[in-house]
Design brief:
The chain is α+β, with helices and mostly antiparallel strands. Helices cover 36% and strands 29% of the residues. The chain has a single domain, classed as Dna Ligase, domain 1. A four-stranded antiparallel sheet has the order 1-4-2-3. A hairpin with a 2-residue loop joins strand 2 and strand 3. The longest helix is centred in the middle third of the chain and has 22 residues.
Length: 131
């Protein structure tokens, strides 16, 4: 079916260069997470510092998801995306932590995970359609 739709679209619009895939919402797991760090002794926060904060919050979301299934059959999930919900400086919301100074920096994220079997099935279908 994917190959048929791809062929039809390419007849009308020319060669397709990119593809996007949607997964059923019932398969997705979302976790909300927050990471705090002391920044009193640091100079102004850089872009690398922000990425470290975001990835630390994301890793915490992975940890929370793994613990949600502790004792059950093992589930493996791939992260399919995350978004920053809030940055906080000394517990106050702020638009960006870039070039900020204070006592504590925090970031809240929401991370979305897809079961490994679902992600691999989607990738296999795309491979069969030459994507």
């Amino acid at each position: 079916m994917i190959q048929f739709i791809k062929g039809s679209l390419e007849e009308r619009h020319g060669s397709l260069k990119k593809v996007c895939v949607a997964a059923a919402g019932r398969s997705l797991k979302t976790m909300r997470s927050r990471y705090n760090t002391n920044i009193e002794t640091k100079p102004m926060l850089s872009r690398d510092d922000l990425l470290h904060l975001e990835l630390s919050a994301f890793q915490n979301a992975q940890f929370l998801l793994a613990n949600e299934y502790e004792g059950n059959a093992p589930f493996e999930y791939y992260c399919v995306g995350y978004s920053v919900l809030n940055y906080l400086l000394d517990e106050e919301p702020i638009g960006s932590l870039l070039d900020q100074m204070g006592k504590q920096a925090s970031v809240e994220v929401i991370a979305t995970f897809l079961p490994k079997v679902v992600a691999e099935s989607l990738l296999a279908a795309l491979t069969r359609a030459d994507y």
